[in-house]
Specification:
Elements: E1 11-14, E2 21-22, H1 24-28, H2 31-34, H3 38-58, H4 65-79, H5 87-95, E3 99-100, H6 104-113, E4 117-122, H7 126-135, E5 144-147, H8 158-168, E6 175-179, H9 182-191, E7 194-198, E8 214-216, H10 222-226
Parallel strand pairs: 1-4, 1-6, 4-5, 6-7, 7-8
Antiparallel strand pairs: 2-3
């Protein structure tokens, strides 16, 4: 996949979980209890969380992402046979304070210095996103933090991507969208955004409409990709 610079980009829009914030840091914070089940719990919790968003959207229903996250956690804990008093509350608390990936703060500062507008576009609730942004020390860097709660449907519904267009008052073609989720990257591309797929987890390309413009393994090279004249 090409790493040629994207031209005429005026704003960078980021998925939150897995792209800016490391969702695995919640379970890692409970490794004293989870032990060898830390990684299996992380994987199953994340998979079920996303499955629930897709299934709710397919049914024409909606629940806020905090509830979905808690329901997915309960499923994962029960499936893996993990029972520990207070563990659910502890994990959910840590999910509100996820670590940013190491390169993220500097990348955002460089993009901001280059004159690009910055936004988050996420399934997370406003309260979840506010906690993540400020907990990671990223407050003040974003021009907009956009939650699907404004449109009442989860990604990859086109209404979510349209939200960024409307709030930033820019055409989709002037937005560079960054996501670690291949399905999200394809959906944003099909919508008309320019897309950098941050393939942190070694995923295979999806067989879906759309095609990301670039594939990277971290966000470190993003300023060079989008800040060109």
């Amino acid at each position: 996949m090409s790493l040629a610079p994207l031209k005429n980009i005026r704003a960078c829009v980021f998925d939150a979980y897995g792209t800016l914030f490391d969702f695995s840091s919640a379970a890692k914070g409970c490794k004293d209890v989870l032990g060898e089940k830390t990684e299996p719990l992380t994987a199953l919790w994340r998979d079920k969380q996303l499955q629930y968003t897709w299934l709710l959207a397919a049914q024409g229903r909606h629940a806020d992402f905090h509830r979905v996250t808690g329901d997915a956690l309960d499923f994962a804990l029960e499936t893996l046979g993990i029972a520990s008093p207070g563990l659910h509350a502890r994990l959910m608390g840590l999910y509100l304070a996820l670590h940013a990936f190491p390169e993220v703060p500097e990348v955002l500062r460089r993009l901001k210095a280059a004159g690009l507008r910055l936004a988050i576009l996420s399934n997370g609730t406003p309260a979840m996103l506010d906690a993540a942004v400020h907990g990671a020390g990223l407050g003040g860097l974003f021009d907009a933090v956009l939650s699907v709660e404004e449109v009442g449907v989860f990604k990859p519904n086109p209404k979510v991507y349209q939200l960024a267009v409307e709030r930033l008052r820019l055409p989709a073609s002037a937005l560079s969208f960054q996501s670690s989720n291949a399905w999200d990257a394809h959906a944003a591309s099909a919508f008309g955004m320019r897309v950098v797929w941050c393939n942190r987890y070694g995923q295979r390309p999806e067989r879906l409409p759309g095609k990301p413009d670039c594939e990277v393994t971290s966000l470190s090279s993003l300023p060079e990709l989008v800040a060109s004249p």
